[in-house]
Amino acid sequence: MSGAGQDLDAVRRTAAQGWVYGHPLLENYRTMYAQAVDAADPRYVGGFGRFRHYPQPSRPQNTDIVTPNNDTPYSWCWLDLRAEPWVVSVPAVDRYYVLPFHDLDTTYVGYIGARSTGQQPGHYLIAGPGWDGEVPAGIDGVLRADTQLLGCLGRTYLAGLSEKDVTELKAIQDQYRLHPLSAFTGATAPPPAPVPAWPRWREEDSDGIGFLAVLDFLLGFFPVLPSQQDLRERLAALGVDGTGTFDPAALDSQVRAAIEEGLAQGRAQVEDAKAHAEGSTGLFGTRDQLGDNYVARCVGADKGLYGLPEEEAWYGGWIADSAGHRPPNAATRDYTVHYRPDQLPKARFFWSATLYRLPERLLVDNPIDRYSIGDRTPGLVYDPDGGLTLHIQRDRPADPDQAANWLPAPDGPFTVITRVYGPDPAVLDGSWHLPDLTAGPDRG
After folding, report:
1. Domain DUF1254: where (predicted)?
2. Can you list the domains of the chain with their CATH numbers?
3. 312-357 pLDDT per residue, tens
C-alpha cells in the first residue's frame, strides 16, 4: 500500500480504533490457540468440541488466564460452528454453576446455569451466524453466536477443599456434554469444515504490526455486523479484510509508520481507561449490553479475561490503598480490610476476595495454600460486633486471631479482587460499596 495520496491521519485513527476493537480477539486467540489448536501445549483441551474439566481450585501454576478465580473450578471448551450447530447438555445441578459462551471478541452469546436457566437438566442449541435450520424437539433453549468460533469458560461451585468435595464436583462436571447437532438428532453429519491455517501464536503479535495480520485471519470467522460496518470497511482499506492475507512487508514506509503510531495510540487509550477502572460494571456482557463500547471490552479483557457480567458476578477491587499508594505494595507495609456487620458483601450465592501479584495478575504461592478469603473460608474470626477484618500482608501475623484472617501477599505489588456471585440489588445500584484497603505504617 502506497503512502502517496493517503490521509495518514485517517490511517492512524483507523489503526488506533482497530487495536481497541481487535485487542480482545487476540487475547482470546492466545488462549484458544493453546487450548484448541496447539496439541503440544500442556493447556490443550483436546481440540474443538470437547470439555476439559479442572475439579481442583486454581493454583499459582494455573496461568491460562489472568486473575484466575479460586472459587469455582473451571470447565473449558471451544466450538467450531461452521459445519453445524452444537448441543450442550447439562444435568440437574445442586449448586451454583454457569456455562457462559463467548464470541471471538469475548462478548457473551448467552449463559446456561443456575441463575439464567435454572438447576434442572436440559439441552441447549448453540448456532453460528447464518444458521436457519429447524430447532429439533427436546431443545430447551437456543444461543445464537455472531462468530463461527466460540469459547466457554464454565464455572461450578466447589463446596469445600476436601477430597469428598472435589469428587462431588467432578461428578457434576463429567455430566456436561457436547454433541454436534447431527449426533443429537441421529441425522447424517454434514461435511466437515476445512482446517484453517492457524497462525502460530507469538507474543510480539499482541502489540506490533503483526497484530493486524492475526486480526485479519480472525475476522474471517466474524461476519460483519451492521453497527461495525464502517470500522470494518476502514480496516479493509488498510488490508485487514478478513481474508488472512494482510502482509506488513507490502506496506509503504509512511503508511506502516502511521499504522504503528495508531496502534500505540490505541494501546495508550486503553491503558488510561484501565487506570481509572475500579469495578466490573459495563466491562462484561452480551452484545446488547456492551454495544460497540470497544474500550470497555478491552479493559475487561485485560483486567479479567472472560469475566462474568454483573448480574452473574460483581467484581471490585482496589487500585490504591487508603494512603493513595498505587498499587498497594506488601514489601513496604501491611494492610487491613474491615467490613462492618452491615458492610459484608451481599450475595445470593457466595462471595470471596482473591489476591493476585502484579503486574502478572496471577495467584501468589504462599505457606498456607490460601489464595482467597470469603464466606466459605473455615476458621475465620469475626469481630465481636459481627464484622470481619482481613489482614493482607507478606508475613504471617503473630496474633492467632489475625492469622486466622490472613490473606498472604507477595513481597511486592498486588491487587485484591472481590467477587460477589448473585449480587444483591444494593451491590448493583452502588448503595453498597467495598471498605477501604487500609495501609499500615511503612516498615522502612
Report:
1. 49-180
2. 1-267 (2.60.40.1610), 310-439 (2.60.120.600)
3. 988 888 888 999 999 999 999 999 999 999 999 989 889 999 999 9
Do the Cβ atoms of 80 and 32 come closer than 8 Å?
A: no
Backbone region of residue 22 per phi and psi (left: phi > 0; alpha: psi in -120 to 50; beta: other values): alpha
What CA–CA distance (Å, rounded) separates 214 from 56?
A: 33
pLDDT for 3: 52
pTM as predicted: 0.86
- The 10s digit of each residue's pLDDT in 376-390 is 898 999 999 999 999
Q: b/e for 274-306, b at 16 or more Cβ within 10 A?
A: eeebebbbbbbbbbeebeeebbbbbbbbbbbbb
Could you tell me which residues come within 8 angstroms of residue 61 by beta carbon, excluding any fewer than 6 positions away?
A: none
Residue 70, pLDDT score: 80
Q: What's the rounded Cα separation, in Å, for the pair 340 and 10?
A: 53
**Crossing angle (nearest 10°) for helices 8-32 and 229-237:** 100
Give dist(CA 322, CA 325) in Å, integer.
Answer: 8
Beta strands 86-90 and 122-127, pairing class = antiparallel
CA pair distance 192, 196, nearest whole angstrom? 12
pLDDT over threshold 80, residue 66: no
The residues pairing with 357 across neighbouring beta strands, listed in sequence order, are 362, 414
Residue 88: C-alpha distances to residues 32, 49, 196, 374 (Å): 19, 10, 24, 31
Pairing type for strands 141-144 and 122-127 reads: parallel
Distance CA 174, CA 172 (A): 5
Is 351 in contact with 419 (CB distance < 8 Å)?
yes
* Residue 27 pLDDT level (bands cut at 50, 70, 90): very high
Closest to 103 (Cα-Cα) out of 271, 270, 284: 284
C-beta of residue 148 within 8 angstroms of C-beta of residue 63? no
Q: How many CB atoms neighbour CB 324 within 10 A?
A: 7
Q: What is the pLDDT of residues 184-241, one digit of tens each?
A: 999 999 999 999 999 999 988 888 899 999 999 999 999 999 999 999 999 999 999 9
- What distance lies between CA 44 and its chain's CA centroid? 18
